[in-house]
């Protein structure tokens, strides 16, 4: 787990409704977990570690700085917020899960409202994560590290099923007419990228 953070706990507070009284240590841990778990999954280990190394050395420039400033940070804010919710609003005690209300006081957690809040934050993370993924896909040649993960302990970029087209079709399936599908408004692609046709696709088919 790294000590280099892509965003500060101050930035996390600035762009969320986390109270200024929340323990800084809790938010720092949430940022670390958010980037290690969620951002590394999208970038892959090699690109992720290169960015951390550049931040540590204060050499983050060019396309890598654009990637961090315009895409990674937005996604990380909500990834960290998602992780922080558990620390901030719930404590494990002998008498169950409690929500602190100030000082030594606490009350039973309302699981329904907690789940709704966390789901809302997760949806925002996934929206920004999809923008990040799209940017990486369109600029694969700019970031060669995306394809340099070759060790068992290095994570290859995983864009996940949540970013894929809801319908996946294979070209050349017998009895299937692509033109009719296109007219019906069905996505005629074998991936999540509508701008790219499936392999072998011919619009005159």
How would you describe what is shown here?
- It is a single chain.
- The protein has two domains: about 10-145, no CATH class; about 165-205, no CATH class.
- The protein has helices spanning about 10-15, 25-45, 45-55, 60-90, 110-140, 180-185, and strands at about 90-95, 95-100, 105-110.
- Mean pLDDT is about 75; it is low at about 90-95 and about 165-175.
- The chain is built from six helices and three strands; from the N terminus they run H-H-H-H-E-E-E-H-H.
- Helix content is about 50%, strand content about 5%.
- Helix 2 packs across helix 3 (about 45-55).
- With about 200 residues, it is mainly α.
- Strands 1-2-3 form a three-stranded antiparallel sheet.
Counted by DSSP, the helix tally is 6
Q: Taking all residues together, what is the mean pLDDT?
A: 77
Proportion in helices:
40-55%
Can you summarize the main beta sheet?
3 strands, antiparallel
Strand content: 5-15%
Task: Write a short abstract of this structure.
This protein is mainly alpha-helical and 205 residues long.
Topology at a glance:
Blueprint: H1 9-14, H2 24-43, H3 45-57, H4 62-89, E1 91-93, E2 96-102, E3 105-108, H5 111-138, H6 178-183
Antiparallel strand pairs: 1-2, 2-3
């Amino acid at each position: 787990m790294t000590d280099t953070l892509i965003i500060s706990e101050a930035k996390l507070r600035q762009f969320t409704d986390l109270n200024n009284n929340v323990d800084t240590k809790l938010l720092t841990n949430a940022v670390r977990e958010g980037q290690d778990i969620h951002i590394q999954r999208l970038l892959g280990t090699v690109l992720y570690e290169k960015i951390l190394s550049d931040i540590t050395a204060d050499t983050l420039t060019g396309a890598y700085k654009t990637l961090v400033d315009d895409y990674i940070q937005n996604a990380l804010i909500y990834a960290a917020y998602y992780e922080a919710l558990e620390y901030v609003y719930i404590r494990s005690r002998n008498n169950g899960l409690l929500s602190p209300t100030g000082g030594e006081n606490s009350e039973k957690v309302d699981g329904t409202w907690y789940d709704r809040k966390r789901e809302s934050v997760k949806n925002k993370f996934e929206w920004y994560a999809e923008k990040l993924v799209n940017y990486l896909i369109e600029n694969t040649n700019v970031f060669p590290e995306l394809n340099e993960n070759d060790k068992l302990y290095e994570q290859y970029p995983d864009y996940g099923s949540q970013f894929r087209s809801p319908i996946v079709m294979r070209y050349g399936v017998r009895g299937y007419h692509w033109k009719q599908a296109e007219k019906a408004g069905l996505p005629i692609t074998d991936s999540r990228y509508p701008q790219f046709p499936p392999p072998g696709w011919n619009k005159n088919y």
